[in-house]
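User: Second chain of the day. Same drill as before.
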Amino acid sequence: MKELLKVTGDHSGEVTGLGHAYAAGVVDVSHGPILYLEDVTVSFDGFKALNALTLTIDAGELRCIIGPNGAGKTTMMDVITGKTRPQQGSAFFGQTIDLTKLSEPEIAHAGIGRKFQKPSVFERHSVFENLEIAMKTDKGVWHTLFTRLTSEQKDRIASTMALINLTEQARRPAGLLSHGQKQWLEIGMLLMQEPQLLLLDEPVAGMTDQETEHTAELLKSLAGGRSIVVVEHDMAFVNSIARTITVLHEGSVLAEGPAAKVQNDERVIEVYLGR
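Assistant: Same format as last time:
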C-alpha cells in the first residue's frame, strides 16, 4: 500500500496548506479505496486510543464501525478529520491527499464531512435556510440569507429536502423539528457541501423505529455516489445497511467482514455482543 501513497502532481482549484497543495473536490480513487489508514497509533498519557490501526474504505462503500466504549471509534474519526494527529502511521484520502498534513477546514474542503451524534443546526432558521447556509459556507450567515439564489441553487436545495424527507417542513424553524428530523437536516447540510466521504456518529440514536427505517433507506440511497462510514451501536440498524462491518477493540481491528461472519466471531461475541 505504501508505494501508492504519494502526493503527486499539480491541480487546478487547489487548496494550499502546510507547504502542500491539494485539489478541492479532486480525489484520486483510481485504485479503488477512498480512505487508507495504515498503522495509525494515537496515545493519550500512555493509553493507546488507537494501536497500529489499519483500515481501508472503498469508493462508494457504506461501512459500519462497531465496538465497545473505548474501542477507538471516535479517535479514528478525529484522525480522519484532522482533529487529532497520530503519533505514527499514515492517513490518506484517495491516493494523494495526506490527511495528517491538513487542518480541519482543509480536510472538510477536500471532501470529508462529519456528523456528530448530537445534531447541530441553526434552530431559529427554517429547513430551507439551513440548507442554504450550508451550501455557502464561504460566506457569512447574514450575507447568505440576503443573497439571491440562482434557479440551480434552489433546485439543489429542493432535491436535498426531498431526499431527506423534509420538503413539507421547508419553512419550519429547525428548532421545532423532531430529533430524527434534525438528524436528517444535518445530513442534508453535509450533502449541500458535496463531500465524497461522510462520517456519521450514531445517526439513529434517539430515533423512533419509523425514523430509523427511513434513515437506513436514506443512507443506502446515498452509497455509491459517495462513501459513508457509520459508527453505530444499534445492531438491527447496522445489519439493515452494511455489507461490511468492522469491529474495533482496544484501538485496532478485531474482526471485519459481512454481518453474519462478524456476529458469529467468538472474539466479537466475547468483547462486544455478549451473547
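The chain is about 35% helix and 25% strand.

User: Great, on to the next one.
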